[in-house]
Prior knowledge:
The chain is an alpha/beta fold. The chain contains five helices and six strands; from the N terminus they run E-E-E-H-H-H-E-H-E-E-H. It has helices at residues 49-52, 70-86, 107-126, 157-163, 199-203, and strands at 4-7, 20-23, 27-40, 143-153, 177-183, 191-193. Helix 2 (70-86) packs across helix 3 (107-126). The model has no long low-confidence stretch (mean pLDDT 82).
Amino acid sequence: TQGFRVSMTNPAEIPTDNHFYFLPTSGLTLMAIEPKVMDTSEALRLYSPNKRHCFFPSERRLAYFSTYTQNNCELECLTNFTLRSCNCVEFYMPRNKTTLICDIGSTSCAFKAGVDLTRDFMRQKIKKIKVDNDCNCLPSCKTIDYKAEISQSNIELNEILQVLETDSEEYRNISANFLYVFFKDPDFIAMRRGELYGFADLIA
């Protein structure tokens, strides 16, 4: 199927498959963007990351990214695992100047590395089995994500060209897709992770 892929992601992250939206080669596409913002109270720093289920930016450093996010952490973990398994990384993965990019002969090895890491992750989450490849990629305590609602319709290019007083014969075999991107609402409500009852509240 022919078309375009549009990425909608946090600027601090490399786009992954779940960040892409597919658009046809012709038609009208409306993309309504809705930000999803999560903040965390500073009071929760008293708890361990595993208890609050998130990392503050200063608590978790990554080798290839200046900003910690769960997606960046998972990609870096996959990169390191692929490098250990295949002595190379995929072209889209972060790397240093000495790291080799996997060629066609290493494609199956890189694919298997991704499958193995996903399997270990599922075993750890579902069966609570401790695995060697624990990425420890908790969500960030301060996150921003974008969700998009897409609506599409057909357009009559010839009629548009006539309105614009443009010779339609010149563009007879051309397909056009008009993409309009806008925020769904002028305002949005951010969510905040906080402490429901503190130690002092329980004593009182």
